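Troubleshooting log. The previous run stalled partway through. Resubmitting the same two chains, unchanged.
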Amino acid sequence: MANQPIELILARQFADSMSVAVFLVDPIGNLLFYNEAAEGILGIRFAETGSMAVDEWSQIFIPTYEDGRPFPPEDMPLVRTLTNQQPAHGSFCITNKKGEKHFITVTSFPIEGRPDRNLGAMAMFWKPK
Amino acid sequence: METKISMKITVWGCRGSLPSPGPEKDFYGGNTSCVQVIHKDTCIILDGGSGIQRLGAFLKNDFKEVHIMLSHLHIDHTMGLGFFLPLYNPNVNVHIWGPATSNESLLERLRRYFSPPLFPVRLNELPTHPQIHEIHRSEIKIGEISISTDYICHPGPTLGFRISCGNSVFTYMPDHEIPLGSANFPNEPEWISGVDLAKDADLLFHDAQYRPSEYANRVGWGHSSVEDTLTYAKLCNVKKLALFHHDPAHTDEQLNQLLKEFTEHKKFDFDVEMCAEGNVYDLS
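Second attempt completed without errors. Output:
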């Protein structure tokens, strides 16, 4: 497999060091990495899944509004960031593979490498205290 | 009969951070990063540290074109540029290649050095303005030499170089902090900075500025320990490793001790040595 760009290597290193949940995706949305805090919310482990294609990881949770209505995937912050290459922010619920439901707030931003290369995006998500 | 293609690689400076001449450093030398790669009439110079001054003085007149490739613009890699005599020779066409950034052009950044109060001569006052080329994740062909470049882990935009000629590969990564540029070192090579540049190289020049105990107090400064560099060379399956970018405080005796400490009674699948100013490597 080809070397990842240094910007993504450092982003993964950063994500790995954080106690807030972090997702790292490439420009087409393939999930390159998620950290330990994200594992707790998603109910899966990176050591077991490794990176995942966009079709695969989009199936591991179901996004909804708090009242249970389906949350449009295209409105999720990370999808908006990948589409527009702009930061995005929003809150919604996810139900993971274990059936656990979490209300989360997500902030996502594009990763633009030198010189002006679109390398993907990072999303951080919080469970309100 | 097929011509045997080779690269002649000469070390004009392999000291890191600061020129540090002195009798206690005579063997490995005190000049900062500068390495010359020659193939036929192609002359490539990797970095413009203080070693480039001597290189310029000894450069044969038959090179009418010279390519200086800057890994990055830290002062120890650029401080010799203004003293490179071919820049003042209108018969020599000098090209300067260096890392692109998102904001300031390479030309603008070079002008900072070539201007008072740092240096009295401005770039546009040279007899022939050098041609400036910005590179990033690039593939370049100069004569029969192919060069792949990519950003590697070091503060500020910094490139590593994979230089190929015929079947020979020389990789140059003078400033590179391996552990910080690795998500899971030494596992998952695709997540380790620069591996594609160094993979299966015949010769790797790699940063090994610190002993591990020194590195522990210098994380984030952009350099690697001898121990990590040995692991990296193994991971990249290189044939020969020359430890580069010696700490300015390390004497010849200390460098010899460092090499002995980390290589004696250990078996490697590749040759290891401390790079020394004046060393010549012939890849064929």
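Takeaways: Chain A has one domain: 6-126. Chain A touches chain B through 19 residues (CB under 8 Å).
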